[in-house]
């Protein structure tokens, strides 16, 4: 996002976040196919996230000891969290026509993760990238570049709303700092 002082920054950010009707439909159509297999896709997302970014497990006492992907896949706690992640995403996708609802849902997620769970916000950017990877694989036969761009735009919407919630609650980076490669963020 380009930094513009004052109200222009907010206005420009909101304009850049809006998905067109065509983009909303592409995201919702893709999501319907993915969400039909909600639990398995959610578990695949979290397992890939924790395998590729094991430092993220520090926030999950109930399964931070799990090392092997098969162990993670079979964990009832991980499966439960996968369903929560997929449920939140489903609420966002179903309400893309209602920016206030999307903002409200993502503000709740952001505030809970900042205040209660103390999760560094960078993990949302990383997780959203993993989500896009898994969705692209799940829809490999029908995931044209326009749909990919729509999902990338939604990723930006999600991250900007979540980080706005962190800022709203006065988030200060927690110590110790995490060691995440710059490449993982893009």
Series of H and E elements = HHHHHHHH
Looking at the overall shape, the CATH architecture is Orthogonal Bundle
CATH class: Mainly Alpha
Number of strands: 0
Helix content: 55-70%
Radius of gyration: 16 Å
Total domain modules = 1
Q: In one word, what is the shape? A: globular
CATH-defined topology: Globin-like
Major sheet, described briefly? none
* Mean model confidence by pLDDT: 87
Low-confidence stretches: 1-16
Distance, first to last CA: 14 Å
Structural class: mainly alpha
Assign the CATH superfamily.
Answer: Globins
Number of contiguous helices: 8
Key features of this structure:
mainly alpha, Globin-like, 0% strand, disordered N terminus, superoxide dismutase activity, cytoplasm
Structural description of this entry:
One of its GO terms (cellular component) is nucleus. Belongs to the globin family. Its EC number is 1.15.1.1. It is an enzyme of class 1 (oxidoreductase). It holds the Pfam family Globin. With 186 residues, the protein is mainly alpha-helical. It has one domain: Globin-like (Orthogonal Bundle), CATH 1.10.490.10. The chain has 8 helices and no strands. The chain has helices spanning 7-17, 21-35, 38-52, 69-74, 76-94, 99-116, 122-138, 145-168. Helix 2 (21-35) runs antiparallel to helix 5 (76-94), helix 3 packs across helix 5 and helix 6 (99-116) crosses helix 8. The longest helix is centred in the C-terminal third of the chain and has 24 residues, at 145-168. The chain is globular.
Task: Break the fold down into its secondary structure elements and pairings.
Blueprint: H1 7-17, H2 21-35, H3 38-52, H4 69-74, H5 76-94, H6 99-116, H7 122-138, H8 145-168
Helix pairs in contact: 2-5, 2-8, 3-5, 3-7, 5-6, 6-8, 7-8
């Amino acid at each position: 996002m380009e930094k513009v002082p004052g109200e222009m920054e907010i206005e420009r950010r909101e304009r850049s976040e809006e998905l067109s009707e065509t983009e909303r439909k592409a995201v919702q159509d893709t999501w319907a196919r993915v969400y039909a297999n909600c639990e398995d896709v959610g578990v695949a997302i979290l397992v890939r996230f924790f395998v590729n970014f094991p430092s993220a497990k520090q926030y999950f006492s109930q399964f931070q000891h799990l090392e092997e992907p098969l162990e993670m896949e079979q964990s009832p706690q991980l499966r439960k969290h996968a369903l929560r992640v997929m449920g939140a995403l489903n609420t966002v996708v179903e309400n893309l026509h209602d920016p206030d609802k999307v903002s409200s849902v993502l503000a709740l997620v952001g505030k809970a993760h900042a205040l209660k769970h103390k999760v560094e916000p960078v993990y949302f950017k990383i997780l959203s990238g993993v989500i896009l990877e898994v969705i692209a694989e799940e829809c490999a036969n029908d995931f044209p570049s326009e749909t990919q761009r729509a999902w990338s735009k939604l990723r930006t919407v999600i991250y900007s709303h979540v980080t706005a919630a962190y800022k709203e609650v006065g988030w200060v980076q927690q110590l110790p700092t995490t060691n995440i490669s710059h490449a993982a963020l893009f």
